[in-house]
Specification:
- By secondary structure, this protein is of the alpha/beta class.
- Helix content is about 40%, strand content about 20%.
- Strands 1, 2, 3, 4, 5, 6, 7, 8 and 9 form a nine-stranded parallel β-sheet that branches.
- α3 links the parallel β2 and β3.
- It is globular, with a radius of gyration of 17 Å.
- The mean pLDDT is about 95.
- Bound molecules: pyridoxal-5'-phosphate.
């Protein structure tokens, strides 16, 4: 099968899953955005997905992301940095990322703000929420999320977009995503514009949609299994 046919078929299957889940859980399909997670896949796949109508792309490694964005700089697209954010990469990331998903410490939020200023860009930042109670795996603990969100109020180059999470390995995904939605609602009560809930990957997009996800990060179901 041609790569474009393969991608088109996978996209059709995913859109069918999204449609079915939206119907089942009473969600409006217009409130759901698909981010194609293209890490490990070549820039040519991004071009093919773009030709199929995808405009949002997720990458998790700075070096790889930067070289693809460089190669595709004429493409009309939004770039999502979804990986763990290291302080020493912020000046790089600020040059190409439109949305940074995994902010979980004061230092990386204020650092990204400074890097965005230096790059002359506005960037949307999401707070990564830890759903397994183990902050060492990334994300701020649920009980500290609201306090950390306050840091955005002092950041003049960032738009606080909302929350992001990865399903925990050792807990029930539905309960975890329900918890995420509660945190998102607490945050929205204080920050009405922070409406994004980035949750749901290839294997759990339905559970994420059930629990209010607005942005799905889909890799393998769309592009195939990574090496
Ligand atoms: C790789 C990755 C994804 C995509 O995962 P799939 O299971 O391939 O859909 C989503 N989110 C993050 C943070 C990732 O690193």
């Amino acid at each position: 099968m041609n790569r474009i046919d393969e991608l088109q078929q996978n996209l059709l299957d995913i859109n069918n899953r999204i449609q079915a889940a939206c119907k089942e859980f009473g969600r409006n399909i217009e409130d759901v955005k698909l981010i194609a997670v293209t890490k490990t896949w070549p820039a040519s796949d991004i071009q093919l997905l773009h030709s199929l109508g995808i405009r949002d792309f997720g990458e998790s490694r700075d070096q790889e992301a930067m070289s693809k964005v460089e190669e595709l700089k004429d493409l009309q697209a939004s770039w999502h940095f979804i990986g763990q954010v290291q302080s020493n990469k912020l000046n790089h990331i600020a040059k190409y990322a439109d949305v940074v998903h995994a902010l979980d410490r004061e230092k990386v939020i204020t650092g990204l703000d400074a890097a965005a200023a230096k790059a002359g860009r506005r960037i949307t930042g999401l707070l990564q929420i830890s759903l397994d109670g183990d902050e060492s795996r990334g994300g701020v603990a649920v009980g500290k999320a609201l306090q950390l969100a306050e840091v955005f109020t002092a950041c003049s180059n960032l738009d606080f977009g909302g929350v992001m999470a990865v399903a925990p390995l050792n807990r029930d995904t539905n309960e975890a995503f329900a918890r995420l939605q509660e945190v998102a609602q607490d945050i929205q009560a204080k920050f009405p514009k922070a409406r994004m809930i980035s949750a749901g990957m290839s294997s759990d997009l339905e559970i994420a949609l059930k629990n209010g996800a607005t942005h799905l990060r889909i890799g393998s179901a769309l592009l195939g299994n990574r090496e």
